[in-house]
Prior knowledge:
The chain is mainly α. It contains 15 helices and no strands. About 50% of the residues are buried.
Amino acid sequence: xxxxxSDSPWVLAIRPKTLPAAIAPVLIGxxxxxxxxxxxxxxxxxxxxxxxxxxxxxxxxxxYFDFKKGADTAERQGPVRVTQxxxxxxxxxxxxxxxxxxxxxxxxxxxxxxxxxxxxxIASASIISGVLYTAGPKPLGYLGLGDLFVFxxxxxxxxxxxYYVQGLEMDPAVIVAGLAPGFLSAAILxxxxxxxxxxxxxxxxxxxAVRFGRSFAMSEYxxxxxxxxxxxxxxxxxxxxxxxxxxxxxxxxxxxxxxKAAFTHLDGAGLNKVLASTGRLLLLxxxxxxxxxxxxxx
Length: 298
């Protein structure tokens, strides 16, 4: 029997189940621009390319540096990490991470030329944060700052940046709308850190789960889900329009099983399923919100 495509070392290294964190905010920002009559296809595609390259580059850098720092060991309960498992040589994984960050920077050049200095700031900060998440003497993820940076850069910054490069203007509702993908991306990270709490603690990786314990990580997950589900109503209070975005809150019903599992299945296999289902939840939320915004635009 031939091996599955999903078992390819490079597919494992890229971590497809995490990519909704890059796709969702771009989709929401683009839908809001479209609904407001500001859609610009080349900018939307460049944003998507840049976001995906940053996410993949961060995943590859995480694979390399977590192995080098001793956070990824044979005892880890999560999906296979290619560097630790010896599937791809460490130097090749690092080179691939650098290549994806460079590709993200190249995709950002067009956006900077179109939208100016602030997009340069956003693009630079996003790439640097992706590198420093696990690299350097004091990586963000090892200091417990990963959740905050994921929330900011995969939430309000990504949604607002996507909208701005298309319309060259900003609406406060766009920034508020960006809270939801930020919360859901942070929820994905909370599950990841809950699963890895024991190996992270031994490696000195002081995630919020390690700092404050399992109960905190589970509560963080629940809070992030609830906050995301309520975000459409905050957006509606600002716009008094686009009632259809309330459909995105229906994802809260689908999230019930994931929340229950996060509180009851503390083994690696169970939490891996929660992580995957939360990624799907993020993608579903972004589709429902985007459809609601576009279909209910005046």
